[in-house]
Design brief:
With 615 residues, the protein is an alpha+beta fold. The chain contains 18 helices and 28 strands.
């Protein structure tokens, strides 16, 4: 039934394309700010394809349709696209063309490519111009063909905005603005058009609720050395927020007035606009009268390096969050087989534990709770209508996080519910070993995440296996759970790397995913910090924030090296020491057994351990 509905929507879209003279129509997963997660209003691609993943682009033409997505969603996309007539293009797989390559090969001279230029980043739009313009292909970038077809489309978001107090933010708006504009001036620009939502929230010290689990408000910012303009829906601002903005000298304009405002700018200005996040439509408007300085938002790096107040608050919040997750694991192991527990009810129970934390605000993303084969889908999301019942066998992968007044968490544990195969133990042990090797990394300043990714993948690559995603990403501070520019991945991407700076946090989440069988992921969040400085340079290391036990029932120690085994027992001992004061007697005794905290491991000394105070 669902597939017939999708086919009907695609036919309605093709009819609209014929009426507009559009030969190919492109729909990405994005809002007007190129956000990763979007409000329901912007889920046009999902409406026309049925694919619900957070990343993917749908291209439709009269004779067919194709959906491009990454390795996190291959299994999910296969299932959700079945029967729709949409072909799945597995991005970065051998022999699979990119969208531009596909269009260049299939579009004929003089044909028209249509898309909503508000949801295509300027960098992508310009690449399409370069790749396809020479072939005589024309562009129609002011076409939102969903209008008129999507009859019950959700309303445009306008949630309540709140102010983040300076004692929580760690820096005032004035301090941040001064730092930002200094960098804008160094880049040769006189003003900044800021369009990335989490950067805007960070700069203005405000938060919103326009995107599920992402505390952001839909808005734009325009800054010069003398003035600051915030384009936001005024109906979302209460008296407190209006007074705060006014007191900071921030001029507030309606969200929809950004284009008329930009068109009235005096000619010849130099405006810094990040082509990755500024929409193609806004870029075209700016280019009419301004010189666009194509540099990265200075806010991105400033936001990524957490200040001392943020780091202190994060440490406290991550400990509380770790206690909640550990209590959940105990509850799950104690009750499995004694009462009906499903993927959905397990996720609800974990949320209940988090809600007991006074600083809790919301989840940081919808909880992924995948049982057995469902865990092989990296971003699987169970629903009340489609969920597995858990049994005292196999494993449950739970990837979850919370938004707190003091931090944003992200943690994954794969939990043993009963007997598991020797193959699963081999895979689990390799994932744990990789995670712990990266945890204990020591490197010279100047490295990016690409230098360190191998530490997590090495035990997995040694078996001829891999996981089709990065090893880690930055995490926001009371903001988006995915944050850049830092990350951990092995594959080179032009312009996609950043030096690891002291104060940057990053996830550490290797995994193994076997379709039809099981999925394993273990994830902690760590903070990069300066270590020893000597004649060779500044050495760095990670400080762990997440303290949740690794499930020893799935670890087969014969697959561990002596050093890996030392890392494991050191981490487990610290988990017990840090969490036991916050557990009741029964939970504490279970955690002592779970972590093998009483076990004395006599191992040959690792030279690095002599100077480290943690591991």
């Amino acid at each position: 039934m669902e597939n017939q509905m999708i086919r009907g929507r695609l036919e309605a879209l093709r009819e609209a394309m014929r009426a507009e003279g559009v030969d190919y129509y492109m729909m990405p997963t994005a809002d007007f700010h190129n956000s990763e997660y979007v409000n329901d209003y912007f889920k046009v691609r999902e409406y026309f394809s049925g694919f619900s993943g957070s990343n993917g682009t749908l291209v439709v033409w009269q004779a067919g349709a194709g959906l491009w997505t990454d390795g996190r969603y291959f299994i999910q996309a296969e299932r959700e696209l079945e029967g729709t007539g949409i072909e799945l293009f597995r991005m970065q797989e051998e022999g699979v063309p990119t969208i531009r390559e596909f269009l260049k090969k299939n579009m004929k001279e003089g044909q028209l490519l249509g898309f909503d230029g508000r949801v295509i980043p300027a960098a992508s739009g310009k690449e399409y111009e370069r790749e396809l313009g020479g072939k005589g292909i024309r562009f129609a970038y002011e076409k939102d063909l969903a209008e008129g077809i999507w009859k019950d489309r959700p309303g445009f978001p306008a949630g309540t905005v709140t102010v983040l107090k300076e004692e929580i933010a760690g820096k005032s708006f004035e301090e941040k603005r001064r730092e930002v504009m200094e960098k804008v001036e160094k880049e040769g620009a006189s003003s900044l058009l800021l369009t990335k939502l989490d950067d805007l929230m960070w700069l203005f010290n405000i938060r919103g609720c326009d995107v599920e689990c992402n505390p952001v408000a839909i808005c734009y910012g325009y800054l010069t050395q003398k003035e600051t303009v915030l384009f936001i829906q005024k109906k979302a601002l209460n008296e407190e927020v209006q007074s705060y903005l006014s007191g900071k000298g921030i001029l507030v304009e309606e969200y929809d007035d950004v284009i008329p405002y930009l068109r009235k700018l005096p000619e010849g200005g130099k405006v810094l606009a990040d082509q990755r996040h500024c929409s193609y439509c806004l870029f075209k408007v700016l280019s009419e009268s301004q010189t666009v300085v194509e540099k990265k938002n200075p806010t991105e790096l400033l936001k990524a390096v957490k200040n001392p107040v943020e780091l202190a608050n994060m440490e406290k919040i991550f400990l509380k969050d770790s206690v909640a997750v550990t209590k959940f694991i105990y509850w799950l192991k104690k009750n499995i087989g004694k009462q009906e527990i499903t993927e959905v009810s397990a996720a609800d129970e974990l949320e209940r534990f988090r809600r007991e934390i006074p600083e809790f605000l919301d989840l940081s993303f919808p909880t992924i709770a995948g049982y057995k084969a469902n865990a092989a889908m990296m971003h699987y999301e169970a629903t009340p209508e489609n969920r597995a019942v858990l049994a005292p066998e196999g494993m449950l992968l739970v990837d979850s996080g919370g938004q707190y007044l003091g931090g944003t968490t992200d943690v994954t544990r794969t939990i043993v519910l009963g007997p598991v195969s020797d193959e699963i133990k081999l895979h689990y042990t390799a994932v744990a070993a990789g995670m712990l090797q990266l945890t204990n990394a020591c490197w010279l300043y100047g490295c990016t995440g690409r230098n360190l990714d191998i530490l997590a993948r090495q035990p997995i690559w040694n078996m001829g296996l891999d996981y089709k995603c990065g090893t880690g990403h930055g995490v926001g501070y009371i903001l988006n759970v995915h944050e850049g520019p830092q990350g951990l991945r092995w594959r080179y991407t032009e312009g996609g790397e950043a030096l690891l700076e002291a104060g940057m946090n990053v996830t550490n989440e290797p995994g193994i995913y076997v379709e039809g069988s099981h999925g394993i992921r273990i994830e902690n969040v760590m903070v990069a910090e300066n270590y020893v400085k000597n004649e060779y340079g500044q050495f760095m290391r990670f400080r762990t924030l997440t303290w949740v036990p690794i499930d020893m029932e799935a670890v087969d120690e014969k697959y561990l090296t002596e050093t890996q085994r030392m890392y494991l027992y050191s981490y487990q001992r610290q988990v017990y020491e840090k969490l036991s004061p916050y557990l009741d007697e029964e939970e504490r005794e279970w955690l002592r057994r779970e972590t093998k905290a009483d076990c004395t491991v006599l191992l040959k000394k690792d030279v690095r351990m002599e100077k480290k105070d943690s591991y």
